[in-house]
Amino acid sequence: MTEVNTRMQFQPSNPSYHPVIAPRNNNDVVSLISPWRVGSMVRCTDCHNSDTSGQGSAIGVNGPHGSIYRPLLKANYSTNEYVTESPRAYALCYQCHDRASILGDESFPLHNVHVSQGRASCSACHDSHGINRMRASSRNHSNLINFDRSIVRPASGALGARVEYEDLGRYSGSCTLVCHGVTHVRFEYGR
Ligand code: HEC
Ligand code: HEC
Ligand code: HEC
Hints:
Blueprint: H1 6-9, E1 16-17, H2 44-47, H3 91-94, H4 99-103, H5 111-117, H6 122-125, E2 130-131, E3 152-153, E4 155-157, E5 160-162, E6 164-167, E7 173-179, E8 182-189
Antiparallel strand pairs: 1-2, 3-7, 4-5, 6-7, 7-8
The protein binds heme C (3 copies).
């Protein structure tokens, strides 16, 4: 479900959110590149900025006034259904989350198989802002999980057709969905 109220997406009482309003301190976030660390806060302008700002290259003006990357992003973020993984495809995320850590499966043990082999964008599984608690439970929308429903479809399980993520503890969970022709019904991962 698309939440258009940005303020609601970053509420500290949400199941998960990027730490714009309040810090997170989630020790499971092992991919952060220094100086980013667990407990850091991020600003809108860490993601939304000119593609030529002083933070990107040295030639442009600072500030979120214009960018060649929609919607006003500082760096490219490819969100199509099939994306060939590269440093550029997810340049925005890789400014703070180490590409080698993500593709090395240091947290979610199936990042590489989905992102590199399955060519699924980060956005097929992750929200970039946060998930409104009024529309989500913490068990189902931890880890910024919010499937892109234009890519991910319901799978029929014992409880009827549904798209569902369930957090089962540190680096483990379960998925019920159909994606890229593959059906998961309470498919569990863990490490
Ligand atoms: C961690 C990076 C990040 C941060 C921090 C961030 N955004 Fe975004 N924002 C994105 C990305 C990526 C998109 C587009 C893709 C998407 O919608 O998931 C986006 C989309 C948007 C959009 C387009 C409409 C929409 O909701 O899709 C607006 C407006 C927006 N952001 C405003 C903000 C504001 C205001 C803040 C600070 C309160 C903020 N963003 C913080 C990454 C970020
Ligand atoms: C400006 C730096 C920055 C950018 C850009 C950024 N992140 Fe993050 N991300 C963070 C920080 C800081 C945390 C929170 C660490 C903590 O728990 O204290 C975080 C946490 C996360 C989490 C864990 C959330 C949770 O609830 O455990 C996920 C998933 C995530 N980011 C995915 C992404 C994706 C996908 C992108 C690209 C769209 C992205 N990030 C871009 C800084 C960033
Ligand atoms: C197939 C779904 C899927 C895709 C695609 C995906 N992720 Fe994740 N990601 C997850 C799940 C599930 C977790 C939570 C693992 C756990 O803690 O149980 C996670 C956790 C994370 C975390 C928090 C832990 C850490 O490593 O710091 C970050 C950051 C993250 N993902 C970033 C990304 C980025 C960046 C991309 C794209 C390059 C991406 N993810 C693509 C499903 C996905």
